[in-house]
Every structure is written in structure tokens, then in C-alpha cells.
């Protein structure tokens, strides 16, 4: 059986118009007056606000939007109905089922299937209608406003003039309103936005309509099913196997352009389905339920040759490029793996019919290059291989050969540098040069982060959130849990993606306002250098080094007319004894100029003479940091080494605020790789990737104390949560947990965004005990993914001292690459521990303890600090050798030795509190003092 894709091309306009019906089918949820009437049931919503929203009907007419929809009539599946009618009938399941119009029947089914996350009945929990939108983790950050006014603005105008070409623009415009509108105003299902909700309905609807067009068969709503199609490459490997930042940025852009082309192919050129997920490895689409869809749907080319959908997708990916320049395209450097569900799913009932998205995400992706393509590249060649791509022969251009790269990689690199020069005077741009983002000691840091979403995307952990209160009749997931619906899963990865984008946005112009931008601050403007050249020709947009007095080398970029510094001037000024850089770069002065290749080898090119004094670039201050990746799961950014710890602290606080209610189930792993500036970027990226490989180790902890605290009662809220003290942190549960000799304190926000409503839905904890906890009120049973069987969950307010609970801790690791081979030491055993560094990774919560200990440790002189730690570690080695089993940590005699060493140091030991003394001895025995000393003094060079 084969299917002609040309049928989709013929039906394109009508298919894309019909798609609109699904996107807007619930647009009435944007009517302010209607939303306000929901709020009337909740005494906590401000009465004045309700009245204001209700009165908007006097100036805004929802009918204006309906009128636009009425004029849009898709001519598909023998329909005579307009979009307004299709949407209205389609969202009422009973009417939709009996409709004679297939478009309405399919929309009814798509709507119904997506409805799986609305566990609440129509009349249930009406008093929980709220004016806040929640995240899927129970954080309520926004109170939307003016939904109808916005809908009647650009979205209405664009829809009025609907055309297939305007589709993307229409969606962006709808998103700007729908993403701030409620799918449902009632807690706790106020976390799915109208946008998530509509996009899932649209995906299901479009794929089934495309199936009807392709197969010319309509099927009854109860038979309708779908499949997922993923198109994946080893994105991390591809992005990170580079030696310079411009290479990485070029690859990021190549991949993103390649995925955009695939998206356009599947959503518009041959309108088959909709993208529902994307990360660094690629997208996942909902597509028609057709077995062998990839190979049996075909289209005839001009020459008569037939191409399958698989060919078309691969071609679209291969055309992915930068600046729309086909000569720089990705081609077959990577060949994506296509995977189509082998079995269809119907979306309901959960969980057996849920889309199996996790199966797609957990597949191993091989690194694949097209061997035939490689062979043609190398036919008749005896050049060496390019040091950047490792695929093409170097050259043929002599300039590229000199740099040991192929023409394509050379050109991609140059483009990035050229683009960077273009933004120099814009005021808000990141750097793309390592030398630029070193600290005053010439060191930089790679920050890496990863959320473990596996249990969430598989659905188990979504079921640990309740939608309705458990009681003696209802203690099972089907009665009380949230369903892992498609829209909800989408909301989860959108939320972690947004989290990373807010930490360090990869979008142009957004860095200053992100966490990293605020922590790192801005650097002084670069210098512009005008000169005459006494050298062989320089290549525009390449970097060179000027040799200054005292052998100091200044990185500069040649833009064709002059040089721009791309180096940390503060750092270099600190090194120079004979004056500041700007005072040296004076008119008439002559300097040697050098070039270096990727291996760091330098060549002298001649010299330059300044034709005028070097001057700072106007409006040229910049953020000396660079986010490399901000995806749903992983994050990577380069920052000056001395800012890295503060960035980590801020990420931690953001995580505790926004994910604090579920952090026992949503671990975050952070790491920092520190390096001195000559360290090759590739080694640092390798080390960062190794850190991302660590697995979550959830285990059983004992509750040492648990207390409910309130700001109003004078309980002290840690300073980092102060901004929320009038919100979700006005009350909190403070739970201290212990495992072996490790302790951590979990601050759980007890309230919702309005600072009044108790959070009854999110902060649940798995008990280890299999016995039903009948002494508590709020508890139920659900699958514990770490234990692999059902377990009892209890609300955090009802934890008791002595409870054995499951906790998946967040962790933090760091490494200093004093040599590039140090990166091979970063690997983790099955317990998630570093094989040769017993203390690492640390719990993220240890950061505050370390800060406190360090503050105390500073009372010792620098020499004393080194002496104490050296004595402890030398003795450990003498007594226990390599101590792979970690016996020193539990050895009482050694502990006594650590105590005596600390007590005997030159400080007033007795003046320290007993608690601090005990903590110091424990940290010394474990080896943490050595880690602290390394981090604060050797790496960060704090005094
Ligand atoms: Zn290359």
C-alpha cells in the first residue's frame, strides 16, 4: 500500500485552515467576564477585581472574534461548516459524536481524548477557582490580565486575513494570549494553560485529518488512534565536540535550522502533524496512525523518481544551515534516526493508551555520519582531516589549510565572528571568546545542570500529585491522582525549559535580565585599535594576538579595517607592571602580531603600528558570559570562574522556590568545571558532559524534625526566600532529613500564590513503610518509581519524626582542570559517587553549610589553613593509603586526630560554638575541608 503525499499538498490550504478550528476551539476561555464569574465561587478572590473583569463586557465584544471565525470555511472532508461552528460543536462530545460532519466528529474525539487531565467533574471544587496560573510543580508565578482585549488585537486581525503562509505568525500571536489563559481556573488543575491544552487538541486533530486525506478513509471516532514520530541525532555529542565557541554556536544554529526545516516539512509542506516536544537531540511529532508511514507515503519528483517521507525528512534536515547559505549546510555530518511508534495509541484510558513519549526520549542515539557521503568527499584526496568536524579534508583554501580546518568549518566560524562584530555596539550581547570571560585570575568556568525528568515523563511522578483529597473511600491513584495527560507532560518540559532560559537565555538580547547576566554583571567596553600593517595579509574576522611588553599577549579580532580587543583587560592590566593596556596602545607604537592554530601553536606574522590611540567602543559594555545550551533537561554556560559559585547559589534558590514542593521527586544536578584560560575548550566541554552523566540516587532518609512555620508568628525564613514571604513562603514546612551522617533541610512552601490557600495538592512524600499510615489523614497509594512497587504517600504537613521517607537529593560537583587529563577522573559509580573523590558529588544543600564553615575557617591565617588541611590529608594517606573503601571517615582514632589538629591550630578553638566545632571535625574527617580549601583558595584564589 502506498500513499501519495501530493494529496496533502493539494489539500494544504484547507488542512491548515481546519487546524485553526482546533487551536481556537476553546477561545471563549479568554473572555474576561466569563473567567470572573468562575471566581465568584471563591471567597479568596478580590471582589473589586471580579467586578472590574465583569465590567469589561461594556467595551469589549467577544462576538467580534466569533464573527471572524464564522467567515472561515474549510473545504475538506465534504464539510459545509465554518470554523466557528466546527469549534462550538466539536467541544461538546455528545453533539460532536452524532454530527454528520467528519471535521466535527474528529474534533470532538480529539477534544475528548485530551480531556484526560480534567479529573474534576463540572461541578466539583468550584470554590477553588483562582486568578493565578500554576506551574506543573505547584508554583504560582502569574496573575494574567486583559485576555479578551489581547485576543481582539493581533490574533483577530491575523485570522481575519488567514492564509497558509501566515500560519506560523498566527500561532505565535495566539500563543501570546493562550499561554496566559487558563485551561481551567480551579486548583489544582489551573496548571495547564489554554495554550498547552489547545496545542494537544490541534496535534491530535491535524494528524487524524491528514490520515483521512492520505487514505481517503474516514473512521468512527472510537477507532481513531495516533502515533508519535521522533527524529533524533546525538545532539550533545555534536554540539560539544568542538574546539572553539564559534564552532559550537554555528552547530547550535545548524541544528536549530535543520529542526525548523523538518518542522515546516511535517507541519506545512505536507501537513501531517504537529511538533509536541523538542530538545537538544531533536523533535517529536504526533503523526497519523499509518503503519509504515515513513516508507509508504511517497511523492513523485520532477524527474519521475519517488521520494518517501523518510527521504524527505532526511533531506530537510541535511539542508539545515546558517544564514540560509546552502554551501554551509549540515548535509550528512549527522544522519537523524527516525522512529515511529510500532503500535498506535488512543490517548485514553490512562495509562495504557497514553502516548509513549518516554520510549522515544530514552532511546540510545548513535553517532552516525553517512558513509557514502564521506567516501565521495575523500575520493582522490590526500589532505589531512579537518580538526573541527573531523570529517572533511582540510582546505582546499590555503588560509583554511593553514588553520588545519576545512573550508566549510572555516566559513561557519568566520560568520559567527562577523555576526558578533555586528552586535558590538548594541549594548547587550554576550561574548564568544574564552579570553573575554576569564576572571581576574585568568580562569573561567563551565556551569552544567540537568533535571532528572524520567519519572515525570513516564507518568509515575505526575500521579504523586493529588487532584482531590484522599479519604477513607479514596486512597488510590485512579481516585485522587492527577493523570499524566499529554498536555501535562508538555507543561513539565516547557517549565524546565523556561527555568533554564531564565537562568541563561540562549536568545539574542536576553542575557542581561537572566540569572547569569545579573550575577556576572557587565564588563568594561573593548578597545578599538587603528593601525598600519607590516605583515602578510590578515583574514577578516579572525583572531590574532598582539605581543605587549613583558611578553603579555592580547587577543584581538581583525575586522578588515582595524582590531577589536577580545580579552579580559582587567586581568591583563593586573599582570602588567609597566602600565595599563590602554596607556600602552598609543599612536606610533609598534607591536608584534601572532596567529595560533587550534592546537595552540603560534606563528609570528610581522608587526603593526598604531595610527591613533586605542579607544573604548562607545556603548560597548557587555556581559562576559555565554549560555551554550538551555534545553528542557540540560543546561550549560560559560562564566568567569569567580562568579560560578554565586551562579550556582542563585540557581539553587530558584529551584527551591519554583520546585520546592516537589524537590523530593525532581532532583537537579549541578556542576562546575573550572579551568585556566589556556585550557582547550574541548577538554572543558568533555568534563562538563561527564558531569551530566551522573544518575539520580533516590534513597531512604529519616525525618529528624518537621515543623510548620509562619512568617506571621515571627519564625525566621531564610533570607533567600524573602521575596516570597508574602506569597507561598508566608507559611512553610521545615523538614530536616538524615541519612548516615548526612543531613539536609527541606523548606517546603505551604501555601499557594495568594498566600492564603493551603497547598493541599503538591507536597507529598513517599514513606518507605509498606504498612498503611492510618494515623494520618492525608495519604494515598501510588507507584514509587525508585522502589519499583506501590508505596504510601503522605502530605508533608503530616510527616512525623522518625518517618523513613524516599528522597531524591539534588547534587553539586566541581572539578578544576589543572591539566586536561584531569577530565578523565570525572566518572560516577552506580551509587552516583565519584570513583576517586569520595566526598563528591556533594548535596546541593551542603552549599550553605560550606559557606558557614568557610566563614569560620577564615579565622585561621592562610598558612594555618593550608597546614591544618595538609596535616589531615597526609595522615589519612599514611594511615589508610588510597582509602578506596572510605574507612578513614568512620575511624574513631582518625576522627580524634582531626579534632586534635583543629583544636591545636592557632586560633581560639574553645571560643567556637560546640555545634560549629563538631561540624568542622566532621568536615575534616570526611575530607570536605580539603575540598573547601581547594575550591576557595586554590581555584577561586580567595584570600
Ligand atoms: Zn571541518
Task: Map the helices and strands.
Elements (H helix, E strand, L loop, with lengths): L2 E2 L1 H5 L1 H12 L8 H8 L7 H9 L7 H8 L12 H8 L2 H5 L4 H13 L32 H5 L2 H7 L6 H12 L15 H22 L10 E7 L2 H6 L4 H25 L4 E6 L2 E7 L4 H4 E4 L5 E3 H10 L18 E4 L16 H5 L9 H8 L19 H5 L4 H17 L19 E9 L2 H4 L19 H4 L5 H18 L11 H6 L6 E3 L1 E5 L6 E6 L5 E6 L4 E3 L3 H7 L5 H4 L5 E7 L5 E9 L4 E2 L9 E5 L3 E7 H19 L8 E9 L4 H12 L6 E12 L20 E9 L2 E8 L14 E3 L12 E6 L4 E7 L8 E4 L3 E6 L25 E2 L2 H12 L4 H19 L11 H13 L9 H13 L1 H12 L4
Parallel strand pairs: 1-5, 19-27
Antiparallel strand pairs: 2-4, 2-7, 3-4, 5-6, 8-18, 8-19, 9-13, 9-16, 10-15, 11-12, 11-14, 12-13, 14-15, 17-18, 20-21, 20-26, 21-22, 23-25, 24-25, 27-28
Helix pairs in contact: 2-6, 2-12, 3-4, 6-8, 8-12, 10-11, 11-12, 12-23, 14-16, 14-20, 30-31, 31-32
